[in-house]
Queue: 3 jobs
Job 1
Amino acid sequence: MSVFILIWFGQLVSIIGSSLTDFALGIWVYQRTGSITQFTLITVSGTLPLIVVSPLAGVLVDRWNRRWAMILSDSCAALATVAIALLIATNRIEIWHIYLATTICSTFCALQWPAYTAATTLLVPKQHLSRASGMMQLAGSTTQLISPVLGGVLLGTIHIEGIILLDFATFFVSLITLFLVRFPEINTVKTSDTKQVGRSSILQEITSGCAYITAREGLLGLLIFMVANNFFFNIFNVLFTPFVLSITSTNVLGIIVSIGGIGSVASSLLISTWGGSQQLIYSLFGFQLLGGLCILFMGLYTSIPLLTLSIFLFSFGLPIIYGCNQVIWQRKVPPDLQGRAFAVRSMIGSLFRLLAYLVSGPLMEKIFQPLMISNSPIAVSIGKIIGTGTQAGMSLIFIVVGCCTMLTTIVAYQYPPLRLVEDELPDVIPTN
């Protein structure tokens, strides 16, 4: 675990720096343009490359040394970041420069994340994969908790140029940790025979990742299940901030978001130290069900204490859900195929995340909000519980999203290949 912990620390520092830059650039673009569309395009430019580049990135990760893949990714992202800092400092920055830099960073993130995740399988003993996954979730939870607060403070002191240069410095921390270690070669790990997949064509190698997943009903079911529920979760995430602001102040919103962040950090710390359940799939089902129930309660009741408790429990479950999902994939996919398989997951997940971003606004404005403003039967009946108006429209979509999440989980549980994926599909890595 010592090598993994060193790499994890470097990645944690780098992720915090990148999150500060993302936060600062988002505020800068919105203040500069006053356009929500321009602000949203930052998210789009950060998501599209993951959809387009991930299949090729997965092949490269499996072909290359994964340490060098991570070094290349961090180096190129650092250069794009410092270019933006120089453009801002010389007052030559244009909005399209931000989109281009975000696209470049996202492109290399498509290479870095599968390499990082697949390398973890080589570095960490099988029995400690849950702890490693918990640490990776902890990095994300910690970043989400401190970045908005720290970013707001730094914007007022060192300004956006200083934040971007700080981000550039964090890349060096990541690179130093990567240069200090060595990764095991893939061929030194005993796996099932996957060399039957031809390497004569990049297209063949791209499709081999898809073929491995589709040939195993349990993994395919897990992929579909996670993508479906993440789609619902992302709709909830997009609408959560305007929903809370429709019933309370920005200060209360900040407190609620911070408490949610504390829930994520607490859960991640628990997994990192304890290691998690032996039956990962049941933990995943249970906390997905809890997440849907929390969203449902937030739609039904707008009491601030209940809303705060719901977001705490929802956030507490997320690291467990994603951690259990990650470990199952690491145990069931051979190391020499993990780059491709994880890239397929990233591509499909990013596609549906982008779809959730795009449909959330129209769903709210064109369907749910009119239903709760007009004298429709829904407004007359459900309106007695959740009220009417804009806030009630968001409450209704939360109720629907929560019910869909729980229903999807119940249906998935009834599918034996998914429910029994840990037992029926053999592990492909030995216990060290």
Job 2
Amino acid sequence: MTPNQKTVKPLLFILLTLTTLGLMAQPEANYDETKVPKFSVPDPLTTFSGEAITDSQEWEEKRKLEIYQFFEKQIYGKVPALLDEYSFKVIEQDNQALEGKAQRKQITVGLKKNNRTLNFNILLYLPNGNEKAPVFLGYNFHGNHTVTDDPNVIIPEAWNENNADLKISSNKATEASRGVRMHRWSIDKMLDNGYGLATVYYGEIDPDKNDFSDGLHSLFYAEEQTKPKTNEWGSIAAWAYGLSRAMDYLENDTNISNVIVFGHSRLGKAALWAGATDDRFSGVISNNSGCGGAALFKRKFGETIGHINNSFPHWFSESFKKYSNKEEILPVDQHQLLALIAPRPLYVASAVEDEWADPKGEFLSTQYASKVYGLYGKKGIDLTEFPETDRPIQQTMAYHMRSGKHDVTAYDWDQYMTWAETFAK
């Protein structure tokens, strides 16, 4: 073997490994509609074997399960087993919180598997004066104490991503970050309109870093296992699982009538998967969820499968990496994820400046999923043109394109509460 041959073989091995892991340099993001490739949208009402679905019973019996199983095994990943035990403990309660406007509870949820445990805290506000209230359940990004300036809300101890603007350093939340994300949670307005809020810091379920050693996954490992198997869950599926474990408590709280699951950005992806996997959620809201959320993969607009697997290799199952930069061979698309939530109410929201999340792709997903809602006699999105900015479409399936950037605003919450009053309350 020549010296050149000795060099080439290791290089080929490295390139092959990087390609398999989805870690090769990614093409620049496309923001030009004229460069969106021609693609075929998989028909949600035609089975993988080519059989046409004509009614809701056939959908339930023949099509829904095969779509669900594909997403479960090839995209988000399968939960490997059942828990051995779980528990709930109300660790703090004040019936006159927020100047008497709310009842506040803080509940520790305990999960146990293979003699290993994980705990996370739910912050719950319920409006005073209501016998029962509907509740929005959603994750927050940096700790329950960031969504309110309420001094009694517990600061999490779990790993936290550093953020100078939010006064988080050394991967640890402190008192300095209390209330820094209040603008994303219209808590007073929720309470005034008869809604409650339940929120959880997502890092208590699974810290958002490419390390499967210190979150929910590790409870389920066999001896010497250090990461999920190829078709097992990534972080998005773990966060969705955590939402369902929060629901285990909420559905038994006698002051709660129903629960609408909500999520923004990566946590919007988790909310959609939670809604697809757990029909106890009475409604689902996806806010700017983008690639791997509501946006169509096959448009290759903004963030793509290659980009997301390269930047966040822990979010999806390992098996999903084979579709990096190969959207054309994927036999499903995200409108079918939305369809799995039917006939329950679903709201998808975009922001006009959030091109990375592909607002048009999010809108088209709602259009293509609407035919499944139609099987149940529910109204989806029948608008053929891209909607005007700040002009919501509110049916059982709802959509709006908001002015502004990637964020959650008071405008968004106003639309969600108006919609929930009719369709999801």
Job 3
Amino acid sequence: MELFRRLGVADKLRAAGVPASEPLDVVWATSGSGSILHRFAYAAPDAAREAARVRNDGTDTLEPAMRVSQIVLEPVLKKLVDANPLVDVRFGWAYEAFEQDAEGVTATIRNGGTGETASIRALYLAGCDGGGSRVRRDAGIDLEGMHAIGEAYMVHFRSTDHQALAKFGIAYHLQTAHGTLIAQNGHDIWTLQTLAPPDSDPDELLRNFMGRSFDYEILVANPWTPHMVVANRLRNGRIFLAGDAAHQVIPTGGYGMNTGIGDAVDLGWKLAAAVKGWGGEALLESYEVERLAIARRNREAAQRHLEVRLAIINLFMEAQAEGDLEGAEASERRLELGRRIAELGNAENESWGIEHGYRYRSPVICPDGPEPALDPMRAAPTTFPGSRLPSLHLADGRPLFDLLGPEFTLIATGQANIGGFEAAAAAAGVPATVVRLDREPVLDLLERPLLLVRPDQHVAWRGVAAPDDWASILATVTGRAGEADRREKAA
């Protein structure tokens, strides 16, 4: 959501999501109509935003989380893209094949309705065409990991039977041994995700989950196969992969779309830099280095979360083996089951280090001393190069992130002298903004008086004083360091 804010569309997306006044609670129960076992309570986005402003310690995000269904989000994004004069949208056309050469890529596309084909010539091609990516296939890129790790079933339905569906109050996820019920819009659209064979009866799945009959209308019901795979490469020449084409993980943690958005932002600004002429080959190479590491880390996190879910299901089975979990006589067993669920925790919804504390390591990042440890549960504020800039509010209430320029930004605090930065950036053709900030206590969290921040809000370089040679720093962070040597070798 911070990245969407940078694009100026966060408010438009929130208007389509679940109201920000609703909490993000996760509830475990014996069944949808049974007894509550444990509630992991999480503040509503509105409350989380205010708490982050008051806390102001760099551990939070400027934008709180947003609950939204993909089928609601995508039309909003499409409308934004349709209205953008710089984007040529061709719905109904599908990618067929590509050919690349030293100067660019030629892609063949086909109209699904008429069969008409057309060619598109471009400098680069980004394959964002999903798990079954034809671009990935044609680029000769393989997937590594575990395929078909289980049999899953989704039931997407409409219901206003809140007496049945909201027995335990407002919750984002209601979870039982029979699956997870997701409240998609806080009113009448719901999704049940469960482990079940492909020939399952969706009506039976709903009844088993709820433990009773209720009124509903099924909108979509289908089996699906979860994978835990990551591409072994994200690039072949002028061809790049992003999103599900590059990685597929189970939804424990919600890392699929979120990782894909991170891919798009990282690849987007680097392609823009290359097209505009100020980004070098090493900058394009860094996309694979940076995003593959994050995709693998997120896959491992999703696997850990799945193992916790399976452990909880085993606890259910053990408790049910001793008898029915409902009724007064089972109260002690329910209490014990709830205690053990609480003990296992809910890292799936609390891994802030995974979600916004991740750090890039690549040739376009300038390291600075010993690297601090990464904690998957906590996004400790740091400006160690490669890290996301901590979100802070200044004394006058302004969010630091809102002061960043559209490309590179040099933050200078207190009396820090920036030396010849502006002249060096102009000479190199690197678009850069300088943000000068008066000294105030909260800025101690930035750790250094000089920070060079990338367009994706990650720190590329930091220092206590301006370097003697800004040109070499800018050459490194834009991927142009050593380009003359490479050209000489190529010649």
